[in-house]
Design a protein that fits this description.
Ubiquitin-like (UB roll), 5-stranded mixed β-sheet, 30% helix, DNA polymerase, domain 1, single chain, 166 residues, binds FE2/S2 (inorganic) cluster, alpha+beta
Length: 166
């Protein structure tokens, strides 16, 4: 039976009717018209649907929507502040990491959640953190280099609250 689901999306309260079998990815894309999380595999394998749920990176195709009741969900749309890109977004742009861009929103969210928890990672830790996000264009090196640059402060401090626990 469908239910009214209430949660916080990119800092704003939202209310939407969801079916018991619907995933968070379906609700975001099909009911809330938020298409930045991509549906690459729909099986938890590619990471293109990654969002931040209560501070943790999750694959939204593997989350039953009704389980996010009362929680905070952040997509790439909720990261920038005051018209400025988040440092991870800026770094990906300046390092020329995205090619087709399909994996990029998921990469941004995985990298952001990781840096929020581990602001001083090693190169290998960054590689491990992004290992669940597939890039069909093979841009891994640039993504990892960009995350390392953010960790070294090349793009300024990571804004507090970019993991948005509201
Ligand atoms: S679409 Fe969710 S992991 Fe691939
Ligand atoms: S940039 Fe094309 S899939 Fe990663």
């Amino acid at each position: 039976m469908s239910k009214v689901l209430k949660f916080v999306l990119n800092g704003m309260p939202v209310k939407v009717v969801a079916e018991p079998q619907e995933t968070l990815l379906q609700v975001l894309r099909e009911k809330l018209s938020l298409t930045s999380p991509k549906c690459g595999c729909n099986h938890g394998d590619c990471g293109s649907c990654t969002v931040i749920l209560n501070g943790k990176a999750v694959k939204s195709c593997m989350i039953i929507a009704l389980t996010v009741e009362g929680k905070s969900v952040v997509t790439v749309d909720g990261l920038g502040t005051d018209g400025k890109l988040h440092p991870v977004q800026q770094a990906f742009h300046e390092y020329g990491a995205p090619q087709c861009g399909y994996c990029t929103p998921g990469m941004v969210m995985a990298a952001t959640a990781f840096l929020n928890e581990n602001p001083n990672p090693s190169y290998d830790e960054v590689k491990d953190a992004l290992a669940g996000n597939l890039c069909r264009c093979g841009g891994y090196q640039k993504y990892v280099d960009a995350v390392m640059a953010v960790a070294k402060g090349e793009f300024g401090p990571i804004p507090k609250g970019s993991d948005v626990d509201v």
